[in-house]
């Protein structure tokens, strides 16, 4: 028989092994992508321990990048290290959270691994949401290990407070949890004083939490200040409006203000302003968001809890096997005992469910008023994965399966897990195209001297990876009609040439000459990657005076 500690350790090792499969060979199969995280990334690289960004700009996430950069000393390596760690930690967090709810080790392992390999983990580009979720997770784990209701509220509130410095919306959750904690302590104080004639112990932990919150506000500013909410509302209202009016001749991401003016008559200053201008349009937007949220939630739960094992049953007659499995589960379930267990379990864990609902309340509000985005819906897994865990935990079966040797259960888990991980291991060993990462590493080796003004078709913060002397103009934003005039006006001395760029601007006489004979216009052609040859429609063109006189057309 395995002891409790040995079972926990074995489960932890299995989750770690699965995490290793997840991130193996990451630098050969994950490309650098442009996301909103680039803003936090840049802030982290420019910040110092004593000079962090304000609360609205996720100062703790910036601090995270400061720590990693101190070890890697290379921005691209920092990018990959952060991505890998932020893909591993949530799996470990879910395992610890499920075990704090007394969910069995095999079930905790499986649910954690399912999340590790879900589309809401590794592929999710906005890692600031995962970073924030880890603080909430930590608070809930400590709360589940605490006997006192006041301690549970304080622990969860601490996690919400720290999460605020990843996503400022969670200051609402911290505020509600603090109010509940104060109210509970006052209620306990009154009850104890009335019955026993003595005062209860002062809430030192609660006082410390409120004091910490005050100090952080004085240092980094009030989290709910600023105009982020109505800016985000405008950007995402444009998505809904574009779906309702596909004939509208603007891009919702590039020209969101045009959609705001069309829907509300003028620019807005807040969501309240939008509601006052056109209540019907505002409520239509909210209703569409609720529909989208239900659809996205259903897909999310399926991707995390159903698809990972269902995808392995791919063969003729699959539906009949699945139906047989479902009938077997229903038939083996001791329904009377299961319902009794579930009722008792939810009552016993009532504080957890109350705390976790308050934690995700800001994201529910955001998904309703602004838009149900993946990096906000992912927080709702703090409800769905524990819910699946406790339902399995308290599931009662008929005597035939009620008692099985623990070693047999663990052995079956390891065999099934091996079958699950094997296809992922095969995929992890395969190299995938990394055009942006190759480009960045190639640009790092070009001997550019002075200010670089670059154009191309990939909207990336090149300064972030290459240095402050690099500026980049995204052609999609300008769509120039005369490339020669545009390049002269913008003082362009570097061009990232792509096939789609050639196809779009190839009829421009100057641009066509630039593609065919860059030397005649004073440019030198470099390959995108050291391992490739420079091709007319896939290369980097650099103005000759930008590099040393004795430069080579081959990258070092």
UniProtKB/TrEMBL annotation:
Keyword Membrane attributed: yes
TM segment ranges: 9-27, 80-98, 110-143, 170-187, 203-222, 320-339, 351-371, 377-395, 407-425
Keyword terms: Membrane, Transmembrane, Transmembrane helix
Source organism superkingdom: Bacteria
Annotated protein name in UniProt: Uncharacterized protein
Organism: Fibrella aquatilis
